[in-house]
Automatic annotation (TrEMBL):
One of its GO terms (molecular function) is oxidoreductase activity. Its EC number is 1.-.-.-. The lineage of its organism: Bacteria, Pseudomonadati, Pseudomonadota, Betaproteobacteria, Burkholderiales. InterPro entries: ComplexI-like_HydComp, ND/Mrp_TM. Keywords: Cell membrane, Membrane, Oxidoreductase, Transmembrane, Transmembrane helix. It comes from Paraburkholderia hiiakae. It comes from the Bacteria. This is Hydrogenase-4 component B. The gene is hyfB. The chain crosses the membrane at residues 6-23, 30-49, 74-94, 101-118, 124-142, 154-178, 198-220, 232-250, 270-290, 302-320, 340-364, 376-397, 403-419, 424-447, 467-488, 497-516, 528-545, 644-663. The keyword Coiled coil does not apply. It is a multi-pass membrane protein. The keyword Transmembrane helix applies. It is found in: Cell membrane; Membrane.
């Protein structure tokens, strides 16, 4: 069975799931169909790699043009890795959906839209698929605790995504006018004839449009609100297949539709913009992730940070292309794809961990309740592998991709421009800061979110289905790193088509991973995974010695007072407060204390303390814009006065203006 047929069957199962969603008795079947469609999509991606799928003309027309479908190798790579956690998320379903079928319909629309973004071959169809992903995301969120949510996070998400949609529409119209058609083949064929201003404007518009879903600043502020109003299953779909689709669309647009291979100035300028925007977005996103005390909010900020790292590598690709270094440009392009592959698996595992914790205790708060002790080996294995990957700890996939990121940035000395070399030096420093904070963030998540002492002995463990899903995804994260010398071959034809160099094969030397040459640097997760069991003999020996000699346990020092172990444990606030104080110029922290008195003011009955950080763009960008719109609305209320004479006067003025223009 060909890959296109499998994709057609997957789309059919998602459509059937959307049709069954309104029926309360069909929710189980809808989940099964959603998960089956994702599994078929993964099989189709594996079948079609490394060559991509042939173009297939669908039996429909849009805007008078036939609609074609075909996925490039890079799209198959990103979609396949994004669909793996989506399959588990859809199969398990949302614990917040209740009896509403909107979540299942929304998941179907999101998956269908993502399939369209990966495969449709003209601008009009792309815009339809892009809006379908946004609509599906809104339906998923509105279908979860619909009676409790006020809808503001969803409205903010849709508002910012529509800003991106307008920018995409502007770019498609501009490129269509310049190349004589809206087909992607026409965009690519006519790219060499594009003028520099057109390439510049279209490139910036595309960055704004696709960056709205990638979480580049200022758009990343919809991430924590929207993710935190939904479930981990929704987050797994958002941070996997949807985010990967947005990055693929941006990468294809910049590398295929614009004349970056001809006009070096355009490629250089877009690269500088992407690097600067991506580095600042990554730093801000991970700094705010560190302050979160909700699983979904922390993981959402982390998704924005990882997407920003991929955008930085796309910018590095443009810098090297502007200097005709096709091999280094291909290295940066491949590294971004590898980074997003590992991120999708690891982030999906942690989102499903959050759903399992919610199923057990009814809360997504990051509180030390001893979940590892309660829930067994599989949950701990998958969670620790995923946390290690997102913290760039060897030998996981995140370590491999981050190592490649820095090795690529270190190649900046090849650039002829001083500005280009300086940008890569600053990018390396900024990404190093982001990586360090990310390590502290996931130490906090794992240490406080999964370990500690149980506060309620009768609390149930994480459901076995969630634990099994997390364990499988964690093993997949490890497999991406260990099997990287094999998996990278799947991107060979895509890199050859773009850069005319077989980059993935140059990144592998036997079982070593190298940045095009083993004379510069090398690592080998495949060999490291064999050596690590030997290194584990040392802690096992220490454990054996402690058992023979015995361990004396004493209470934690708690100000000289005897306290229960739980009272002395670190909380999410105390863990992150030092960073909040040091970076107070970024966080702009807020603290408040409310006292309730019983009879007299010196008898305190209750003390409520709250603390938080300031959302920079909400305070300095979104709120002023909302105030401006409200002021304009107040001034324009006169148009709705209901006075008939006023309306007749407006019509008369309009007629006079039309006659005046006609006479001119």
């Amino acid at each position: 069975m060909s890959a296109n047929v499998l994709f057609g069957v997957a789309a059919t199962t998602w459509t059937l799931a959307a049709c069954l969603a309104p029926l309360r008795t069909g929710h189980g079947a809808a989940r099964a169909l959603l998960g089956l469609g994702c599994a078929l999509g993964v099989v189709a991606c594996v079948t079609a790699l490394p060559n991509g799928t042939p173009l297939y003309c669908l039996p429909v027309e849009l805007a008078g043009h036939p609609v074609e479908f075909g996925i490039e190798p890079a799209g198959l790579w990103l979609m396949g890795f994004g669909l793996v956690p989506a399959a588990f998320a859809c199969g398990l379903g949302s614990p917040l959906a209740g009896r509403s079928g909107r979540w299942h319909a929304g998941a179907a629309f999101s998956l269908l839209g993502a399939l369209g973004v990966f495969g449709l071959q003209d601008g009009a169809a792309l815009l339809v698929a892009w809006e379908s992903m946004s609509l599906g995301g809104a339906l998923m969120l509105m279908g979860e605790r619909a009676a409790e949510n006020d809808g503001r996070p969803v409205l903010l998400m849709l508002a910012l995504l529509e800003v991106g949609a307008v920018a995409l529409m502007f770019a498609v119209v501009m490129l269509g006018e310049a190349t004589g058609g809206i087909g992607f083949a026409r965009f690519a064929a006519g790219s060499e004839s594009l003028s520099s201003p057109v390439s510049w404007l279209a490139g910036v518009a595309l960055l704004i449009g696709f960056g709205a879903k990638l979480g580049l600043l200022p758009f990343y502020e919809w991430f924590p609100r929207a993710y935190a109003s939904g479930s981990g299953a929704t987050g797994a779909v958002f941070s996997g297949v949807v985010l990967n689709a947005a990055y693929f669309a941006l990468s294809r647009a910049w590398n295929d539709w614009l004349n970056v291979s001809v006009q070096g100035d355009t490629a250089f300028g877009l690269g500088v913009i992407a690097i600067a925007l991506g580095v600042v977005s990554a730093i801000l996103a991970v700094l705010f992730a560190f302050q979160q005390d909700d699983w979904r909010s922390l993981l959402s900020y982390s998704s924005a940070e990882n997407a920003s790292v991929a955008v930085v590598m796309l910018g590095v690709t443009q810098l090297f292309r502007s200097n005709q270094f096709g091999d280094l440009a291909g290295l940066a392009w491949t590294v971004a794809l590898l980074h997003l592959a590992g991120h999708a698996l690891a982030k999906g595992a942690l989102f499903l961990t959050a759903d399992g914790i919610f199923a057990a205790c009814g809360s997504y708060d990051i509180v030390a309740r001893g979940w590892l002790r309660r829930s067994g080996f599989l949950l701990g294995l998958g969670a620790v592998f995923s946390v290690m990957s997102l913290s760039s700890v060897p030998p996981q996939a995140g370590f491999v991709s981050e190592w490649y990121v820095f090795q690529t940035v270190f190649q900046g000395f090849h650039l002829a421009s001083f500005i280009g070399r300086l940008m890569l030096v600053l990018a390396g420093a900024g990404l190093a800061l982001a990586a360090a904070v990310a390590l502290a963030t996931f130490v906090k998540l794992f240490g406080l979110g999964l370990q500690g002492l149980p506060d309620v002995d009768v609390m149930p463990p994480v459901p076995r289905t969630n634990a099994a899903a997390v364990g499988v995804l964690g093993l997949c994260v490890l497999a991406v790193a260990v099997g990287a010398p094999l998996w990278l071959n799947a991107l060979a034809s895509g890199a050859q088509a773009l850069f005319h160099v077989d980059i993935p094969h140059a990144m592998v030397a036997g079982w070593l991973l190298v940045p095009l040459t083993d004379k510069f640097a090398f690592i080998s997760p495949s060999k490291l995974i064999l050596a690590m069991p030997l290194l584990a003999l040392l802690p096992l020996a220490l454990l054996w010695l402690t058992r023979r000699r015995g361990v004396r346990r004493v209470p934690v020092w708690y100000g000289g007072m005897t306290a229960h172990g739980r009272d002395a444990m670190t909380t999410a606030l105390t863990f992150s407060n030092a960073m909040r104080t040091f970076y107070s110029f970024v966080y702009q922290p807020t603290n408040s204390a409310m006292r309730e008195h019983e009879q007299r003011e010196y008898f305190v009955k209750r003390l409520v303390f709250s603390s938080g950080v300031t959302d920079l763009f909400e305070r300095h960008l979104f709120e002023p814009a909302i105030r401006f719109v409200n002021v304009c609305a107040q001034r324009l209320r006169a148009l709705q006065s209901g006075n008939l004479n006023f309306y007749l006067a407006l019509i008369g003025a309009l007629l006079v203006a039309i006659l005046f223009l006609t006479l001119l």
